[in-house]
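Before relying on records like the one below, remember that each one covers exactly one chain. Contacts with other chains, cofactors or solvent are not represented anywhere in the record.
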Amino acid sequence: MVFAIQQEDSGRIVFPVSPESYTISVSSRNTVANVFQVGDVNLKGKTGLREVSLNSFFPAKDYNFAKMVGDPLSLVTQIEGWRNSDNPCRVVIGRVLNMECTIESFLWGEQDGTGDIYFTLTLKEYKRIKTKKANITVETDPPKKRETKKPKKNSGKTYTVKSGDCLWNIAKKFYGNGSQYNKIYEANKDKIKNPNLIYVGQVLTIP
């Protein structure tokens, strides 16, 4: 069985010594919720990312079970470069697994003074996010200016409040309809705090 790791345009490393064992783990993102009068229930979630862990070594010389494929330290340097890269890698385990991944951890070192580099490699599945292109329409014509209405000018009429006056009576006098007293109130808010209270001698603007 072939065990290999590669990065696009950056080479490929086929492990000269097949790992004695490897593990592929995956979990579901289920959620446990507590429902009143029912208790805990398990809500089915999406599948999580696959993780791969394997152990092997890079030989510093030829063995009867494996041939040296390069300087072990140079292979370590290459894997470290991939780990620090912004681009994902791809791990291949025979016909069992072929997936894009990131290098989550890389533990390596010598054990017996032979120059062989033993390592533990932990990889996690990498998923590419597909985004839809948005159709954006750009207007080339300058926006039309909105016409601004000029504020209505007051009629220029004024009225001096007399004894017994109220806004209703004044509106009835000028407009023929006492229910339009609010027009006078709105035009004289700086003088009238309460439309039910006006005082003798106040000069009101009649709009």
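Residues 3-125 form a domain with the Elongation Factor Tu (Ef-tu); domain 3 fold (CATH 2.40.30).
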